[in-house]
Amino acid sequence: MFVPRAGTYPGVGYLFADRAEAGELLAERLLFARDPVVLALPRGGVAVGEPVARRLGGALEVLVTRKIGYPPAPELGVGAIAEGGEPVFDLELLRKLGMTPESVAWVVEQERAELARRVAVYRGERALPDLTGREVIVVDDGLATGGTARAALRVVAGLEPGRVTLAVPVGARETVRALRAEADEVVALATPVDFRAVGQWYERFGQLSDADVLRLLGR
């Protein structure tokens, strides 16, 4: 069980110094995995996935996802898309906002373009590894609404893996519970009650660049 350290957020502490420490701790909960493929969601998930793959002796690769934002407030995700997959929408949220998947089609096309750009930067012409029958661990740096993780898991499920684990250092309790229907197992080191944002639980949670991702991938 984690005990929050004194942090910079009023009234709360933090659980992890940075994503690298979170990955090291997460790896200790994943020692059951044998020869896994670790698929990290860029950008932040790659910094967590790298120590996981290194500790488990698994292959590290990226699975690129993009949030589909609500146009007036793009930080509010109404869906997500992962490479090779179709958009996954929060239909209940769209209904409450008076919108439909068709009304954000132009946002989806923008995100498809950025998704394709990142795939080209991170993997070039290489396809995702063959996941048939493999143990797959999908890693991100945290779960808030879980939209991008859900989109990623559905793409992975279509590639006929042997077993799929979603692994995160921290996540909103309800989101973690909901995503158990999308994977064989969900491993979350912490599910705090007072969950407001993923970055709340890290002492250092700076944005990563494409160059940071390539460095972590050893490219």
Task: Walk me through what this model shows.
Strand 1 (5-6) and strand 2 (13-14) form a beta hairpin. Helix content is 33%, strand content 22%. It has one domain: Rossmann fold. It has 219 residues and is of the alpha/beta class. The strands form three sheets. A five-stranded parallel β-sheet has the order 4-3-8-9-10, sandwiched between helices. The protein is globular. It is built from seven helices and ten strands. It starts with a strand and ends with a helix. Helix 1 (19-28) packs parallel to helix 2. The longest helix has 19 residues, at 105-123. One of its GO terms (molecular function) is glycosyltransferase activity. InterPro entries: PRTase-like, PRTase_dom. Keywords: Glycosyltransferase, Transferase.
Q: Which CATH class applies here?
A: Alpha Beta
Shape: globular
Secondary structure: helix percent? 25-40%
Instruction: Give a count of the beta strands, DSSP E runs of length 2 or more.
Output: 10
Pfam family, one: Pribosyltran
Protein name: Phosphoribosyltransferase
Domain Phosphoribosyltransferase: 33-187
Organism: Nonomuraea typhae
